[in-house]
Design goal:
The chain is α/β, with parallel strands linked by helices. It contains 14 helices and 19 strands. The chain has 2 domains: 142 residues, Rossmann fold, CATH 3.40.50.720; 278 residues, Dihydrodipicolinate Reductase, domain 2 (2-Layer Sandwich). Strand 17 and strand 18 form a beta hairpin. Helix 1 packs across helix 12. Bound molecules: NADP nicotinamide-adenine-dinucleotide phosphate (NAP). NADP nicotinamide-adenine-dinucleotide phosphate binds next to helix 1. One of its GO terms (biological process) is glucose metabolic process.
Length: 496
């Protein structure tokens, strides 16, 4: 499958004229190309609109070009892109698509390796997979892999149905379900911080950790995605996948080896240990919010119900906060708090690990209490780690003062870390599925969140909208922690 150590493949992008392809996929493939990580490859873009291959190549060029590119590189790169105008629901044109694929396979010596990247609305996933099989596109000499964007189903039932459909054409180890959070540098770093440092792992349990907080907040509202978001909401859009994946990485046991199967099996155990919620408990553990109008950076912004393609009476949540309990030996009694939402005060994804207080305070600070030790993992936009300690305040007194040990990824590498999509695409081409979600993880996550959506969908939230745009969510989200004697560490005060 590999020659000269470099992977080779034909990449078929379904939805090649869409936003994801333009903003993420073409630039990622280009970066891999300029870094010499791809040698022999070709790309077929598939979408309905009639475009010539030349027009398509121009569109690819426009999406990648920066000022310091060499024109020869760019021209060689785009010459490997071909366009096939095709409605994925139309059975008749898969044969022509296969002919083009065979031809390129021969011309570029691609060894029969094929990657099918479905950058399209999820309702087409099953149909495409079935056609790929029926019309012979998956009948290859080399490897065949299916890359699927989120959302993978709408709930457990629809996810099972979709999985059945795609499994007719691809085996589980040929399916790469993208959760782009798993491609983020600092999300991948969670494992390394935990398992490569003698100082953290011994403390990583309910004896020393008071609580863990995972926040993923956005400043942007729903923008043009009202139609999709009305059917999804923050629980399905963020919690079922990204938030639960981060929790699994934080809570899992050390794998016996760093292989895909071992890591996934430890993550699955965490998801199995999540305390399931009964319908009557949902609102004790989870809080939903919807933004009203407000001001962001001095500018007035509309409420969710005023956004395009949103119901004026919408019951859709744009914010979720929750308390997860992981009922196993390591985590019994330690709350994992998660929160995510749109139109919040800051764009920030951060994890705060709050350690328990020491048994006795010998020192004092101005406010007479010692700050707890915190380990903060900054996922985005800044990437880094901060350890909050107490140290002696300079001077005569034995007074303690908080200090921070900072590591900033950008400063250390002197360059931006590669985009998540670039890393994930490269993993897929090399056949490394570690940072993609296995079906078992998808199913367990849906079965957990389904309980919450069932309750929320059947009871209209009378308080909506219940948080102002530009804030950190509804008051009930703060009360969720106050009940336990904690509070959300303000993400804006924790920057690297
Ligand atoms: P988009 O901009 O709406 O693009 C959809 C693409 O599908 C277009 O190329 C469209 O081209 C093509 N298409 C639609 N119906 C078709 C049909 N019947 N046959 C063939 N092609 C068809 O969507 P997107 O934002 O790129 O998102 C694609 C997927 O990625 C979705 O599952 C989304 O949830 C996921 N995703 C996107 C982002 C993002 O940043 N955009 C992030 C995470 C996940 P034609 O109209 O020419 O057919």
């Amino acid at each position: 499958m590999k020659q000269n150590g470099k992977p080779t493949a034909l990449i078929m992008i379904f939805g090649a004229t869409g936003d994801l392809a333009k903003r993420k996929l073409f630039p990622s493939i280009y970066n891999l190309y300029t870094k010499g990580k791809l040698e022999r490859f070709a790309v077929i873009g598939v979408a309905r609109r009639p475009l010539s291959t030349k027009d398509f190549q121009t569109a690819v060029k426009n999406s990648i070009q920066t000022s310091n590119d060499s024109p020869a590189d760019v021209n060689d790169f785009i010459s490997r892109f071909y366009y096939h105008s095709h409605d994925v629901t139309d059975s008749s044109s898969y044969t022509a698509l296969n002919q083009l694929a065979e031809e390129l396979d021969g011309n570029y010596s691609l060894e029969g390796n094929r990657i099918f990247y479905l950058a399209m609305a999820p309702e087409f996933f099953g149909t495409i997979a079935e056609h790929l099989k029926k019309d012979g596109l998956t009948n290859v000499r080399g490897f065949k892999r299916l890359v699927i964007e989120k959302p993978f189903g709408h709930d457990l039932e629809s996810a099972i149905a979709l999985n059945k459909q795609i499994r007719t054409a691809f085996s589980e180890n040929e399916i790469y379900r993208i959760d782009h959070y798993l491609g983020k540098e600092m999300v991948q770093n969670i494992e390394v911080i935990r398992f490569a440092n003698a100082i953290f792992e011994p403390l990583w349990n309910n004896r020393y950790i008071a609580n863990i907080q995972v926040t993923s907040s956005e400043i942007l509202g729903v923008e043009e995605r009202g139609r999709y978001y009305e059917k999804s909401g923050a629980l399905r859009d963020m919690v079922q996948n990204h938030m639960l994946q981060m929790v699994a990485l934080l809570a899992m046991e050390p794998p016996i080896r760093l292989t895909t199967d071992e890591i996934r099996s430890e993550k699955v155990k965490v998801l199995r240990a999540l305390r399931p919620l009964k319908a009557e408990e949902v609102n004790d553990y989870f809080v939903r919010g919807q933004y009203g109008s407000g001001k962001i950076n001095g500018e007035k912004v509309p409420g969710y119900r005023e956004e395009p393609m949103v119901d004026k009476e919408s019951n859709t949540e744009t914010f979720v906060a929750g308390k997860l309990m992981i009922d196993n030996f390591r985590w019994a009694g330690v709350p994992f708090y998660i929160r995510t939402g749109k139109r919040m005060k800051a764009k920030s994804t951060k994890i705060v690990i709050q350690f328990k207080d020491i048994p006795m305070n010998l020192y004092y600070q101005t406010d007479q209490t010692l700050n707890p030790n915190l380990l903060v993992i900054h996922i985005q936009p800044e990437e880094g780690i901060t350890l909050h300690l107490n140290a002696k305040k300079a001077g005569q007194n034995m007074e303690a003062t908080p200090v921070k040990l900072n590591f900033s990824n950008k400063g250390a590498d002197g360059m931006n870390t590669p985009e998540a999509y670039e890393k994930l695409l490269y993993d897929c081409i090399r056949g490394d599925a570690t940072n993609f979600t296995h079906w078992d993880e998808v199913a367990l996550s849906w079965s957990f969140t389904d309980k919450i959506s069932e309750v929320w969908e059947n009871t209209k939230e009378a308080s909506f909208p219940n948080y102002q745009a530009g804030t950190m969510g509804p008051k009930a989200a703060d009360e969720l922690l106050e009940k336990d004697g904690f509070f959300w560490w303000p993400v804006t005060d924790l920057d690297v």
